[in-house]
Amino acid sequence: MHCRIRYNSSSMMFFRMNTHVLGTLILVVFLLQKGHPLQQQQQQQQQEANRELIVGGAQEAPLDFYNWFVRVKNRAGVLIAPQFFITKANYADTIVPKETLSRIGFLCNEDDDITSSTTNCGQYYEDKMVEKIFIHPDYDNGGPNLMLVQLNETSTIQPSKMDHGKLALSYQTGQGNLFTAGFGTTNVETGAMSDRLLHLEQHFLSNDECIQAVIDESGWNITHQEMCAANQDPLKSPCYYDGGGPLYDVTAQKLVGIVSTGADGCQDYPTVYERIGTVYEDWIKETICREHVEPKPSFCMEQDQHFNVVSEFKEDDDDDGQSWCLTRRDAGEGAQVVVEVCKESEHQLWNINGRGQMRSFHNKKLCMTNIKGEKKFAMKPCPKRKGNSNFTFIFDPIHNSLIWLSNKANFKRWGLRAVALLDIPSVDDEISKSVHVRKRNDDILQKWRIEYPDM
Fold first, then answer.
1. What is the pLDDT of residues 303-358, one digit of tens each?
2. If 0-12 CB within 10 Å is exposed, 13-18 middle and 19+ buried, where does residue 434 land?
3. Phi-psi label, residue 254: left if phi above 0, alpha if psi -120 to 50, beta otherwise
4. Residue 75 near residue 286, CB atoms below 8 Å
5. Dihedrals phi, psi of 434, to nearest 5 degrees
């Protein structure tokens, strides 16, 4: 790093001094401007030292700042739920279930053997065994280079919060206060690695600018699932074995990316990160909420995401005021959708995505659909494209109707209705009531309300 000294004549202060002091000052200024050999040597030594120390991180990470950082087989990861951390998918051959130990909260390496005890430079840590791995389903087809790792037991360390989809999309080129951290290579020539967690500020680059910056790196293709960032000093960058580590928005205090790849030599080019926001809803959240032991993470039960659909219908002999909720008979594909007495059950929790699809709490890939000709609803795989009206629903809060969008022209004529026992036989001796589509009207059997469970 070169030291650049600037002078501003408007800010200079004039004061009395003796000739000896003045002469000394003139000599110092002359040497600084001309470049004294001793100064040049010191600058060169400092530059070489910087080159050795800043490849994987410019500064030592502070105590208790990256508590969720995971070290596993000399690789990096980020704890995002008590029983899960996220890392790169191409580490799958290295991270072996039932055999690989991970250290959560790792700050400094006092022994080459991760299984040994350590003071960890005064920071609390926990060791957990890897139980299972979940590679992103599109990884082999050029999709996200991401893998979720399930631990054999939950950690008590606070996980990192995540970008749910909008945070990183709001970034403009130059956005700072984004930090990456790791124990990776600090000297490319020798392969030396840091024994202390290092961190480095990065600045966001748009994908178009990133592509231009790496245009001569053959094989690079920046997709919408990726993002780029770089330090203002091109010599400072994540390096080998920093992969799987975080890109952390310090302002928002959320994980926005995972270190994916960079140029050979680790310098002069931006680093490519896998975006968290693009895979949060349909893969990260879905996988963790399905596989995590109880109690599940709080984001699995967010009130703005999951709700009960409660019927306004009351039976004539119902004096106890019980309510009836839209319910999936079981968690699997093909499960019939019925109405049952409301209770604390995940089978009665729903979510509507941006396509109007009523999704299962257990599996976001299963959606409620109208089975034409059978007068019933069931859970089927959600269509990936818009336009399949059999899967599309709208809640009308004015008329308290859950509308089945049979087509765009006449959707207001249709509503999902709960059917009385006299109209259609109930299921399982009146424990459940059937639901089907009827022409929309003011019948109480078509009245619904949305309720968020008390969590």
1. 446 788 888 887 665 556 678 888 998 888 899 898 888 888 888 998 877 677 88
2. buried
3. beta
4. no
5. -80, 160
